């Protein structure tokens, strides 16, 4: 293979319109090393790279075509490539695939995504770190990724690179990476460079990343990028054993358009003083999030209208519900009512220094761990010394070589002595020895963590979204090493795929990893990353090892942008099975079993006592708190380590739950999310979230719950009506009213559905508003004389329906189609013609509405239902049942409705069209800013923002802790919990909190302890066993059943009965064959009658 050949992977549709195939393109460059642009009709995108003249060979199936392209075509190609973000196979520019990228859009927004889609990125160095960075960029959806590496795959690389197999050994690293990276996203062009790079080639990219480059060469390339017009973002990063660094230079003036990615903060104004400076007080509905120095604008202020000029004003002296503005409002109009204050996010300009300047004067380092505040300056020297070592000797220090370690430490001293500013007084030789020993190794967890961090930095460079690392970042996880001193002989390579890891941790720990028995719960984004990491680390890859993964979910299209083990042809298949199969391809020795059970009390016959007792570690990869709490309780019960992690957009956290060393996951809880009062959502919304909450509720009521209730009634009318009579409450009355209304207004034609939707519009957005403002006019007052319509309430106004308003038309279309679906009515072709739909709507007779007197509208924020109870509910229910029976007689035999379950991720089903229409029309009633369908989907669909970068970082951090768990013997101060926000960027690492200790006499215990009694004792023997510990048991229960209480004389008759007999006879419990023990709760007191909270008692009877 010629070192100057370049290769491109271009995914193309097969002629028959079937599956996609990958097209390998070989480009033979001219002597000046420049490349060929690709512009093939059926290719996903064009690569915008300059050329002189070249020969293009495209291989598709069995056909090979050779074309010569001259340099005069370059300009034309470049102009065409710059005009579009993506060129699809039909030649039309494509916007964002919202089904695929919805979770990522929730983090970045459309503008950032479009900038990404136009960005070309170079990743140089395709060992583990380079592959991780490239993976995250391909998933993010940049325009193109060019892979550069002049070296060949070694067995050593398989410790950290998930795209290589043993068959790739001896092949070029970049070339071997292309196909598997291309599978991740067919919209990204993947190309390779396998020869030496020149700085001029860097001009083809918006960002360049180097993972294996000398400092001298890095300075040369960075100078070129820094001074290029426009500047090219330059990132240098490397991981060496348990140490890593990142350096960023985005040019002399880089603008950050959004420093944190958070939505602008807002406040609802309650009063503004005529003063200098003016004080602004807001309603105490929610605490203000403003900080001193923030810029804000005012709107909708009545009275002091001078503030509605749209001019940003700086806030100061911020408090939870008030702040001051630097403005003299003494002569302004007096504040009357209303007003919204909104934060204006300011762009930030960063002046980066070149690597040559920054390495001498690094400034402040980004700190990760306050217990290591002095570590970054030492690592700054260590990486410079390592560069000198490799340049002088042409190799890395040998693991376990004391001579190499001493030479390296000497070089660190030399670099330190030559430092002008910030010379260190003390150098930690022990730490540097570990650095030298592991310097050649790229460890998978470190690559995963840094792959996430650096991938995010590239996104920042290409989009201006989020604050970049400025400019050096250093990290180490030296605590991950075994507590026992390592024997240098144990670090020697064994000619295995784990040799790089062995060079850091030794072969003894490697055997422990391979023999582990692990349980991974969840196979989504976190689960996929964990499986990849574990396979590369060799966890559960020995003969005695086994990994069990479970997930009851199936693959959806939206998963593909970050759950990287899945492909589009896997949509609809079980996540755990597909992920396990893909992970086994990464490492054929991976012993993995995939299950589709939800880990819950219902599956304890699968995950039984013996399953839990045989585990070494549990890794959570879950997306909800309840499931996490359940697994936490099982780990607590069986005393198993639990490695917990989670992500939210650019944020991630990890928590280590280690038996007897740390508190458990459930020991601390986040406060519950604040819910809007029922009356606010239904009658007094003041933000779009309230409107969308109401819209989602109406959707489910109209299209799912009511049709379900109709079917329940039709399937067994007598039982259904009898249950309603027995309930006899307002809820039963409301349910019957909805069922009767649905059947009474049943649709038989699509025109009927249009009529229903049009009348719904009138009811929701006209009549209800007229009734509300009739009941509470604009000048209405409360009992204490205050204006009823004061902040945060907003006075609504009815809408005037018009077929000329596209949003009104879209609402009717979506509502009609969904209504038709519930009644099984086919959708005519003309329905989607705006003109014909408008004609059909104009045929609908809309009755005039007259507001009613004495209508009760709920205004109590503590009310949990808007249904008012009445004294004659029972009579009303009987009347409704009578009408329902008459309605039933008119139905055709076998009539049944089709309930619609809300599905947010299908843009063709009209679900989100209807919900967005409901919410936006309601927002228009109340003069609340409307949102587009995508934003509505995020809120109403409760979509959790997610990106691949934070997921990768979280799993890398967890796997660094896994070394400690499986090695054993680490203290609580060796473990780390982490909170990180890649947007800021912020890294906060701290040791876990130890569990609370309870003491009694000379004993002590924590939540981790469980007292075990074997051989099926009698009640007397159990009481005596406790008494021997100085504890007097006065109550013993099994579940909710009392087995013994000292106050009940007849319970003494049970003294000589076996405990298992009491459980079966008294508690009537069935103990299944897989159960070898049961648990009892014992209430005890000491000899002074003080209650003692003892651990759970487990009685083994088999």
Structure commentary:
The strands form six sheets. This protein has an eleven-stranded mixed beta sheet with strand order 4-3-2-1-7-6-5-8-9-10-19, with helices on both faces. It is α+β, with helices and mostly antiparallel strands.
List keywords for this structure.
globular; 11-stranded mixed sheet; single chain; 17% strand; disordered N terminus; 1102 residues; alpha+beta; 8-stranded mixed sheet; 35% helix
Structural class: alpha+beta
Low-confidence stretches: 1-5, 9-94
The outline comes out as: globular
**Based on DSSP secondary structure assignment, what is the total number of beta strands?**
35
> Gyration radius, to the nearest Å?
34 Å
Averaged pLDDT: 90
Major sheet details: 11 strands, mixed
Strand content: 15-25%
In which order are the strands of the major sheet placed? 4-3-2-1-7-6-5-8-9-10-19
In short:
35% of the residues lie in helices and 17% in strands. With 1102 residues, it is of the alpha+beta class.
Topology:
Elements: E1 5-13, E2 20-28, E3 54-60, E4 63-69, H1 74-83, H2 98-108, H3 110-117, E5 120-124, H4 128-140, E6 144-148, H5 173-184, E7 189-193, E8 207-210, H6 215-227, E9 233-240, E10 243-249, E11 254-256, E12 266-272, E13 278-282, E14 295-299, E15 313-319, E16 322-325, E17 340-344, E18 348-350, H7 355-358, H8 375-393, H9 402-417, H10 429-437, H11 444-463, E19 472-476, H12 499-505, H13 507-514, E20 517-521, H14 525-537, E21 546-550, H15 575-586, E22 592-595, H16 609-613, E23 617-620, H17 625-638, E24 642-648, E25 651-657, H18 678-683, H19 688-715, H20 717-727, H21 730-744, H22 750-775, H23 806-823, H24 834-842, H25 873-889, H26 911-925, H27 933-940, H28 948-967, E26 977-981, E27 986-990, E28 998-1000, E29 1003-1005, E30 1010-1013, H29 1019-1027, E31 1032-1038, E32 1041-1045, H30 1059-1065, E33 1077-1085, E34 1091-1092, E35 1096-1100
Parallel strand pairs: 5-6, 5-8, 6-7, 8-9, 20-21, 20-23, 21-22, 23-24, 30-35
Antiparallel strand pairs: 1-2, 1-7, 2-3, 3-4, 9-10, 10-19, 11-18, 12-13, 12-17, 13-16, 14-15, 14-17, 15-16, 24-25, 25-26, 26-27, 28-29, 31-32, 31-33, 33-34, 33-35
């Amino acid at each position: 293979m010629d070192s100057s050949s370049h290769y491109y992977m271009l995914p193309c549709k097969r002629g028959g319109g079937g599956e996609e195939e990958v097209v390998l393109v070989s480009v033979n460059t001219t002597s000046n090393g420049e490349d060929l642009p690709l512009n093939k009709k059926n290719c996903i995108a064009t690569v915008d790279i300059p050329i002189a003249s070249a020969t293009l060979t495209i291989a598709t199936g069995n056909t090979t075509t050779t074309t010569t392209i001259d340099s005069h075509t370059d300009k034309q190609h470049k102009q065409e490539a710059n005009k579009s973000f993506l060129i699809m196979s039909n030649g039309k520019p494509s916007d964002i695939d919202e089904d695929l990228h919805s979770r990522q859009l929730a983090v970045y927004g459309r503008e950032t995504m479009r900038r990404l889609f136009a960005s070309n990125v170079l990743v140089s160095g395709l060992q583990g770190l380079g592959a991780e960075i490239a993976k995250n960029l391909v998933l993010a959806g940049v325009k193109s990724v060019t892979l550069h590496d002049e070296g060949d795959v070694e067995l050593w690389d398989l410790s950290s690179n998930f795209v290589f197999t043993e068959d790739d050994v001896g092949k070029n690293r970049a070339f071997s990476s292309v196909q598997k990276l291309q599978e991740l996203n067919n919209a990204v062009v993947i190309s390779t460079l396998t020869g030496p790079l020149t700085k001029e080639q860097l001009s083809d990219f918006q960002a360049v990343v180097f993972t294996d480059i000398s400092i001298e060469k890095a300075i040369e390339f960075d100078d070129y990028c820094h001074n290029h017009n426009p500047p090219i973002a330059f990132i240098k990063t490397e991981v060496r054993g348990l140490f890593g660094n990142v350096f960023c230079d985005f040019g002399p003036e880089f603008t950050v358009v959004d420093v944190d990615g958070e939505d602008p903060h807002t406040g609802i104004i309650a009063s503004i003083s005529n003063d200098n400076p003016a004080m602004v007080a807001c309603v105490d509905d929610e605490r203000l999030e403003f900080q001193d120095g923030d810029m804000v604008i005012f709107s909708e202020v009545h009275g002091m209208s001078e503030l509605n000029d749209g001019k940003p004003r700086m806030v100061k002296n911020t408090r939870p519900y008030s702040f001051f503005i630097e403005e003299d409002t003494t002569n302004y109009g007096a504040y009357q009512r209303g007003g919204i204050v909104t934060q204006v996010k300011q762009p930030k300009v960063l002046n980066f220094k070149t690597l040559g300047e920054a390495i001498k004067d690094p400034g402040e380092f980004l700190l990760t761990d306050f217990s290591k505040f002095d570590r970054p300056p030492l690592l700054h020297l260590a990486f410079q010394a390592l560069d000198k070592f490799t340049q002088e000797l042409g190799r890395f220090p040998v693991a376990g070589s004391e001579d190499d370690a001493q030479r390296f430490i000497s070089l660190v001293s030399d670099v330190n002595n030559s430092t002008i500013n910030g010379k260190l007084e003390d150098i930690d030789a022990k730490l540097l020895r570990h650095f030298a020993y592991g310097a050649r190794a790229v460890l998978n967890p470190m690559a995963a963590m840094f792959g996430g961090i650096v991938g995010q930095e590239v996104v920042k460079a290409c989009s201006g979204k989020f604050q970049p690392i400025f400019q050096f970042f250093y990290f180490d996880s030296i605590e991950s090493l075994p507590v026992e001193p390592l024997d240098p002989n144990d670090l020697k390579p064994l000619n295995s795929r784990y040799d790089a890891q062995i060079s850091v941790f030794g072969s003894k720990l490697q055997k422990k990893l391979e023999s582990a028995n692990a349980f991974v719960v969840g196979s989504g984004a976190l689960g996929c990353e964990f499986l990849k990491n574990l396979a590369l680390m060799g966890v559960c890859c020995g003969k005695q090892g086994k990994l069990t993964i479970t997930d009851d979910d199936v693959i959806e299209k939206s998963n593909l942008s970050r759950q990287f083990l899945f492909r589009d042809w896997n949509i609809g298949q079980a996540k755990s099975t597909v992920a396990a199969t893909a992970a086994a391809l990464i490492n054929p020795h991976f012993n993995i079993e995939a299950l589709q059970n939800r880990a819950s009390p219902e599956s304890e016959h699968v995950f039984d006592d013996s399953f839990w007792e045989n585990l070494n570690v549990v890794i959570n990869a879950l997306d909800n708190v309840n499931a996490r709490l359940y697994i936490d309780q099982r780990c607590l019960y069986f005393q198993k380590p639990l490695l917990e992690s989670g992500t939210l957009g650019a944020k991630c956290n990890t928590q280590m739950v280690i038996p007897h060393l740390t508190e458990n996951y459930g020991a601390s809880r986040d406060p519950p999310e604040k819910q809007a009062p029922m009356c606010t959502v239904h009658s007094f919304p003041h933000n779009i979230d309230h409107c969308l909450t109401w819209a989602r509720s109406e959707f489910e009521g109209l299209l799912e719950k009511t049709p379900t209730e109709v079917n329940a009634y039709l399937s067994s009318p007598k039982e259904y009506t009898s249950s309603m009579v027995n309930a006899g409450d307002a809820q039963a009355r409301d349910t019957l009213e909805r069922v009767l209304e649905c059947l009474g207004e049943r649709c038989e034609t699509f025109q009927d559905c249009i009529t229903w939707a049009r009348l719904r519009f009138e009811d929701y957005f006209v009549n209800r508003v007229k009734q509300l403002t009739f009941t509470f006019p604009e000048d209405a007052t409360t009992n204490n004389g205050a204006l009823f319509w004061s902040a945060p309430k907003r006075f609504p106004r009815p809408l005037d329906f018009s077929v000329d308003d596209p949003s009104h038309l879209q609402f009717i279309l979506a509502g009609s189609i969904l209504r038709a679906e519930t009644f099984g009515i086919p959708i005519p072709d003309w329905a989607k013609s705006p003109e014909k739909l408008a004609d059909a709507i104009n045929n609908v007779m809309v009755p005039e509405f007259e507001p009613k007197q004495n209508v009760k509208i709920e205004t109590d924020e503590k009310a949990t239902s808007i249904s008012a109870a009445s004294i004659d509910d029972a009579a009303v229910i009987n009347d409704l049942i009578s009408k329902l029976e008459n309605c039933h007689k008119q139905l055709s035999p076998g009539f049944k409705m089709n309930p619609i379950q809300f599905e947010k991720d299908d843009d063709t089903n009209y679900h989100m069209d209807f919900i967005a229409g409901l919410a936006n029309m309601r927002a228009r009633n109340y003069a609340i800013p409307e949102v587009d369908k995508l934003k509505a989907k995020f809120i109403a669909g409760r979509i959790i923002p997610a990106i691949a970068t934070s997921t990768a970082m979280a799993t890398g951090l967890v796997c660094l802790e896994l070394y400690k768990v499986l090695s054993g013997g680490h203290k609580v101060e060796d473990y780390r919990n982490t909170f990180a926000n890649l947007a800021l960027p912020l890294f906060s690492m701290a040791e876990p909190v130890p569990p609370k200790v309870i003491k009694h006499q000379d004993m002590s215990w924590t939540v981790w302890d469980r007292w075990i009694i074997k051989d099926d004792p009698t009640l007397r023997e159990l009481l005596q066993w406790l008494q021997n510990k100085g504890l007097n048991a006065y109550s013993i229960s099994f579940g909710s059943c009392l087995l013994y209480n000292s106050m009940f004389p007849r319970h003494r008759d049970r003294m000589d009965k076996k405990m298992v007999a009491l459980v079966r006879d008294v508690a009537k419990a069935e103990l299944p064959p897989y159960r070898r023990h049961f648990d009892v709760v014992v209430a005890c007191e000491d000899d002074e009658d003080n209650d003692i909270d003892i651990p759970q008692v487990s009685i083994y009877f088999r």
